[in-house]
Amino acid sequence: MESDTKEIGLYIAYSALMSMAIGPIITGSYASLRGLKRPANAPKPTKSDSPLEDSDDEEESVTESLSSSDAWMFPVIGSGVLFSLYLVFKFLDKKYINYLITAYFSIVGCAAITKTGMMLARKIVPLCVLKHVSKYKLTLTKQRKHLTHASFTVIHAAMLATSIVLTVYYSLTKNWIASNIFGISFSINAIQLLSLDSFQTGMILLSGLFFYDIFWVFGTEVMVSVAKNFDAPIKVIWPRNIIGFVLGIEEYTQAFTMLGLGDIVIPGIFVALCLRFDRHMAWKRNPVGDFRSTKFPKPYFVTCAIFYIGGLATTMAVMHIFNAAQPALLYLSPACILSVLLTALVRSELKELFQYTTEEKEDDKNKKQKKEKGKKENKEKQVEEKKEDKQEEDDIHAVSSETQKNEDEEYVAVTPVENKSGAGSPKPSKKKKKGNKK
């Protein structure tokens, strides 16, 4: 009975981890669509009646785009940070280190939970209720110059108060449920705010972290050691035998199964890229309607999400069979990359897939081209100026030489001679050669 309960509890733990992984990925991917720039041929969105929407800012979500150079450096920087944390926990008192970590993540987590809560409020609170919610606007100015503004409602205040209470509760108790709420909020916000500029960048990132995960999990004890000692919401966890705890069959233990947030966020931003590509292709084929609408075909997004679930299930199956920690990206990276390539191959869209870039990258390209064009024009201008300066110098030198020549000729012509008569014009001197008289 007890062994059966543990087995069932373990399967429940695996299912819970998968739910806490795929949920933030789907939510964060849809939230990332708010950061897409509206095409020039797309109509402006209608003004929302919801006080939770800021109508003054059409592009509400500001994203941080990762380029291919960032993707190449990601495993290197990640390795440095991971090994540094390992050394810190090994040689310093981890109690005080975790105090600092808890303080930092409490502040950041408070903001993350508030933002996630507002995201959910926009979806679940009926518009008929929101219409009766008052909206306030705080504007910061300096001598009549507008600096910034912020809009808020009582719902914002309620979410902020809730996040503060939850942060204090987690800091004092380290409760695993509160920790999961923080972890899920971090994942959703990271997937929304981080974006890949192209599929090439995404494939470079996943491939690099594929080898990164293998080395630090199989090659050393560093990854597992840091995950166990790092007392912060950087992972989602679930008790291995929650049934025994709920039914009172056995005492609650600290036996948890866990999944790092990196195994959610990194594949998550790739899945979000697939959704943005689906939006791009759908608008390219049929540029009508509301660009912000989420009702469009999503072949790449759905396929990649399914492959992610399959890769995560494979990870847990291998971990269960061999009873050893597994690098999740060993299975997730190939799954995500293959899903996109197979879908593009079936739909004959490989060219479009690899040519696709985000608006941010296009802007960077245009800026770079303008910069290079400006440099080229400046260089040509400098060359022309040098030519003009040289021509001017040559002209001055020629005039100077001609003047000098004229002066020399004039000097020879008017050279005076001694006039013994004391009158008349000077005459050229004629000296007779002196010689012996014969």
Tell me what the structure shows.
With 438 residues, the chain is mainly alpha-helical. Helix content is 66%, strand content 8%. The protein contains 14 helices and six strands. Strands 1-4 form a two-stranded parallel ribbon. A hairpin with a 2-residue loop joins strand 2 and strand 3 (145-153). GO terms for molecular function: aspartic endopeptidase activity, intramembrane cleaving. Residues 374-390 have a biased composition (Basic and acidic residues).
Question: What brief labels describe this structure?
Answer:
438 residues, two-stranded parallel ribbon, two-stranded antiparallel sheet, disordered C terminus
Give the helices and strands, then pairings.
Layout: H1 2-32, E1 64-66, H2 68-91, H3 94-124, H4 127-130, E2 135-142, E3 145-153, H5 154-173, H6 176-193, E4 194-196, H7 199-219, H8 222-229, E5 235-239, H9 242-247, E6 256-260, H10 262-285, H11 299-322, H12 329-346, H13 350-355, H14 359-413
Helix pairs in contact: 1-6, 1-10, 1-11, 2-7, 2-8, 3-5, 3-6, 6-10, 7-10, 7-12, 10-11, 10-12, 11-12
